[in-house]
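Running this now, will post back.
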Amino acid sequence: MTPVEWAIVGLALLGAFFGGVAAIGIVRMPDIYTRAHAASKSDTLGAVLTIGAAALALESGLSIIKAVFLVVFMFITNPTAAHAIARAADDQGIEPWTTEDDS
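Update: finished.
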């Protein structure tokens, strides 16, 4: 395998790992605020790494440009969406989870 192929496999595996971490975070976290955090951070990183692997694999100038636009779009929209969800939850009066809620 060439170094580029190793990079593609590495980026794809890292992207899948962080996507899995985001999915586990959404299922395991106790409230909407921590779920939004898990979704916005890990999911964004996982998708960006996977798109990077796809851009390297396609080796086309136009495909790489499209991948860069997708990455920029995701870096803007994912955290913004998570912030909007958290703000809407706060406006609805949803209280954050605390350790006192376990007892």
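Helices lie at 3-28, 32-58, 61-91. More later if anyone needs it.
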